[in-house]
Specification:
alpha/beta; 28% helix; ADH-like_N; Quin_OxRdtase/zeta-crystal_CS; Enoyl reductase (ER) domain-containing protein; Zn-ADH-like_protein
C-alpha cells in the first residue's frame, strides 16, 4: 500500500513538489510498497482510509517538537475516515462496507489502518465521509474544552483566538450551538468575511486593528461586562492582550501555541480575579477519560448530521502532495481544515 513515512526529523514543507521514495533530503517519503497492516486481535478492524486530516500537532511531530516523540521511522497522522475493509472473528459492532471515522496516535497517512472495533465511530447518513475525517481532533478538542471543561452556557461571552484555523472554526461553531456571544480574532479580509458568514457576533482583524479596543467597543455597545471564556490555540502576545478583556471568574482554555511562544499567565492576577485556567491536551482523554471523549465525538457526529455544525475544508491534497499540505498549515493559508484524500481506486486489493 501507499503510506507516508517519516524517516527522520525535519521540516516536511522543505520539498515544494510531489514526494517520492527517492527523496533523500525530505524527512518524509511516500512508500508505495509499505506492508498492509493485518488484523491483530479477534476484535480488530481494518479500515480502507478515504480521508485523513492534517493537524498542527502532526507538523510538530515530524519536526520533533511535539510532546509525544515516536521512534523512527513512523507513519504520521491522527484523525481519519474510511470504509471497513476487514473484520476479526469477534467483531460484532461493524461489518465490511460500513462508513467509519476515528483517530489514532499514529498511522492515518496511509491507505489502510487497523483499529479495535470500539475505537471506531459509524458515520451517520447525511454526514459526508471526507468531512467526517476532519472532525475528531479539531471538533473533539473544542467540544471537550467548551462543553465538558468550561461548561459554556447561553449568554456567556466566548473569545476565540486563531478563529479561522481548524480548531478555531470548530470553537466558533460550538460556541454558537451553546448559545454564547462569540467574538473571533483572525488575520486578513478573507478570513474575517468567512467568519462573519458563520454568524459570529463580532470579528476582529488583528492585522488591521487593536484586539483590545475592538472587543471593548463591541462589549460596550452590547452592554456586556467582559469575556467569560477565552479559547486560546495561539499563545504569545495575543494571549497577554486578551487577558485584559476577561471578566472576574473567567475561564482560560489553553489549547496550543501556534505562535511558537508559550504565554505567561500571572498567578497573582488569576488569584485576584478568580480565573480558572484549563490546560487541554485532548489526546490524553483516550487514556484518562475515554468515555468523555467517545460521548463527545458521537454528539458531534449527530450535530453534523442535523446540520448544527459544518466542517469547513480549506485545502485537499493527495499523499504525494503532503509537503504542500503541511505548508498550507505552516503558512496559515487555511480557512478550516487541510485534508489528504486517498484514491483507493487505483490501489491493489488488500488481502487478509
Amino acid at each position: 500500500m501507499e503510506a507516508l513515512v517519516c524517516r527522520k526529523l525535519g521540516d516536511p514543507t522543505a520539498l515544494k513538489s510531489s514526494i517520492s521514495e527517492a527523496d533523500n533530503d525530505s524527512p518524509i517519503i511516500l512508500s508505495k510498497t509499505h506492508p498492509i497492516p493485518q488484523l491483530t486481535t479477534p476484535t480488530s478492524v481494518r479500515v480502507r482510509v478515504k480521508a485523513t486530516s492534517l493537524n498542527y500537532a502532526n507538523y510538530l511531530q515530524i519536526l520533533g517538537k511535539y510532546q509525544e516523540k515516536p521512534p523512527l521511522p513512523f507513519i504520521p497522522g491522527s484523525d481519519y475516515s474510511g470504509i471497513v475493509d476487514a473484520v476479526g472473528p469477534g467483531v460484532s459492532l461493524l461489518k465490511v462496507g460500513d462508513r467509519v471515522c476515528s483517530f489514532a496516535a499514529l498511522g492515518s497517512f496511509a491507505e489502510f489502518l487497523v483499529a479495535e472495533q470500539d475505537e471506531l465511530f459509524k458515520v451517520p447518513d447525511g454526514c459526508d465521509l471526507v468531512a467526517a475525517g476532519a472532525l475528531p481532533v479539531a471538533f473533539g478538542t473544542s467540544h471537550v474544552a467548551l462543553v465538558h471543561r468550561a461548561q459554556l452556557t447561553s449568554g456567556q461571552v466566548l473569545l476565540v483566538l486563531g478563529a479561522a484555523g481548524g480548531v478555531g472554526l470548530s470553537a466558533v461553531q460550538i460556541g454558537k450551538v451553546c448559545g454564547a456571544v462569540v467574538i473571533a480574532v483572525a488575520r486578513g479580509d478573507e478570513k474575517v468575511q468567512f467568519l462573519k458568514s458563520l454568524g459570529v457576533d463580532h470579528v476582529v482583524d488583528s492585522s488591521k486593528e487593536s484586539v483590545i479596543s475592538s472587543v471593548k467597543d463591541f462589549l460596550k455597545a452590547r452592554k456586556l461586562k467582559g469575556v467569560d471564556v477565552l479559547y486560546d490555540p495561539v499563545g504569545g502576545k495575543l494571549t497577554k492582550e486578551s487577558m485584559k478583556l476577561l471578566n472576574w471568574g473567567a475561564q482560560i482554555l489553553i489549547i496550543g501555541f501556534a505562535s511558537g511562544e508559550v504565554p505567561l499567565i500571572p498567578a497573582n492576577i488569576a488569584l485576584v480575579k478568580n480565573w480558572t485556567v484549563h490546560g487541554l491536551y485532548w489526546g490524553s482523554y483516550k487514556i484518562h477519560r475515554p468515555v468523555v471523549l467517545e460521548d463527545s465525538i458521537r454528539e458531534l457526529l449527530s450535530w453534523v448530521a442535523k446540520g448544527r455544525i459544518t466542517i469547513c475544508i480549506s485545502h485537499t491534497y493527495s499523499l504525494s502532495e503532503a509537503s504542500l499540505a503541511f505548508a498550507a498549515i505552516k503558512d496559515r493559508k487555511a480557512i478550516g481544515k487541510v485534508m489528504i484524500a486517498i484514491d483507493n481506486e487505483r490501489s491493489v486489493k488488500s488481502k487478509l
